[in-house]
Design a protein that fits this description.
Elements: E1 7-9, E2 15-21, E3 24-31, H1 34-50, H2 64-79, H3 83-97, H4 107-119, H5 141-160, H6 187-196, H7 201-211, H8 215-219, E4 226-227, E5 232-235, E6 244-247, H9 250-257, H10 280-290, H11 298-308, H12 314-321, H13 326-332, H14 339-354
């Protein structure tokens, strides 16, 4: 059919339609039948052509609370690994837009939501044990931006599901976020960190620093995905949705080979028989004992990928990291211990060995003599 280019199949085998007609863009997931998807395109185009200005059909009045619940269940939980983040964002959004119909939400009200959240304070779980001498922190711009992204996506689905005529959040701007400071460990710092890590934490750090894997990928790793014969780790459930195989070096091989392989997960809690959910407390303790400050676990990924970039191409780093583009990989690769300085120094050595030193250019500046000079 002529609508072939408007069809695309997703990872779950469902047909997704995406087309424009009379200035309107329609995006919708239909189902596993391609014929039904083609028929849906024809039907929707017919409706638009019969009613080009959208006056014939009025969107139903739907409360934001009800749509948010449906959005979470039908869209976020079905399509996003990070749906719990949407759930948290929607809790704040529902508190502000409670009792309002979708048609009542305006761009001005969304700006008021931004201002209100900018003045909010982050609640302290235990005020008596709070270690922040300056008191409660304000909500960060990045947190509010995630909530705005969630709101835009939520309202886009309302438009797609014919509950709303247009998205009032489409042109609402996000806050400017400060660039995050990446902390790249030196070899000496790495040795100190591993030396001060607990027996349970050390294998996690070894894998992180020698593979560049994300924390979630490491902690959810199963023994069935570790191939000691071929020497690689299979990452099946990655952030990008793509699986990849990461070769093991000798240190990773020996470290994992020494662990108990009678359980399902590589890093498993022996008491609960479930995988380890986080290593935040143990990691902070190891950093404190090693005298290393301002280090996040994610910085271990930055460190590993930056080291890799010294020895292999960016394409190889991209494949190991599981990135979808070189641009993303470049964000993770940083100058280590003066690599840039040594790089330009090497260029100078090349010129000296070749005997072709750049010629010195003499620049003469014309002198203007004033007529009044004597």
């Amino acid at each position: 059919m002529g609508d072939e280019k408007n069809l695309k199949r997703d990872d779950q085998g469902r047909w997704r339609i995406d087309f424009r007609c009379k200035g309107r863009r329609i995006i919708r997931v239909v189902g596993p039948s391609k014929r039904e998807a083609e028929a849906e395109i024809v039907r929707l185009k017919g409706e638009i052509l019969r009613d080009p200005y959208g006056f014939g059909k009025k969107a139903p009045e739907v409360l934001f609370d009800d749509h948010a619940k449906e959005f979470l269940e039908l869209y976020s939980k079905q399509n996003k690994r990070s749906w719990s983040r949407d759930e948290t964002s929607l809790d704040h959004l529902k508190e502000f837009f409670k009792g309002k119909y979708l048609s009542e939400i305006t761009a001005e009200q969304i700006e008021k939501y931004k201002a209100k959240r900018r003045a909010d304070l982050v609640p302290t779980r235990n005020k008596k044990k709070s270690k922040n001498p300056e008191g409660p922190r304000i909500v960060s711009p990045s947190t509010i931006n995630r909530e705005l992204t969630c709101l835009k996506t939520c309202l886009n689905r309302a438009v797609d599901w014919e509950k709303l005529g247009r998205n009032p959040a489409a042109r609402v701007k996000k806050f400017r976020e400060p660039n995050a400071k990446e902390r790249i460990l030196t070899i000496i710092e790495t040795d100190r960190l591993l030396a001060e890590a607990s027996e349970d934490l050390r294998p996690v750090l070894v894998v992180a620093l020698n593979t560049g894997m994300r924390k979630s990928e490491i902690l959810s790793l199963r023994w069935k995905d570790v191939d000691f014969i071929k020497g690689f780790i299979h990452v099946a459930d990655s952030k990008s949705g793509r699986s990849r195989d990461i070769p093991m070096n000798g240190l990773v091989f020996e470290t994992l080979h020494a662990l108990d392989r009678s359980r399902e997960f590589v890093f498993e809690n022996p008491e609960t028989k479930a995988r380890v959910l986080d290593v935040k407390t143990a990691f902070k303790g190891a950093c404190r004992r090693a005298g290393i400050s301002d280090l996040r676990f994610h910085d271990l990924r930055h460190t590993a990928l930056s080291w890799l970039a010294k020895y292999v191409s960016l394409v190889t780093v991209m494949k190991i990291a599981g990135h979808s583009s070189i641009q993303m990989t470049m964000r993770y690769c940083h100058d280590i211990e003066g690599d840039m300085q040594r790089g330009v120094q090497k260029l100078g050595e090349v010129f000296e060995k070749s005997g072709k030193k750049p010629e010195r250019v003499e620049i003469r500046v014309p002198v203007t003599i004033s007529k009044t000079a004597h």
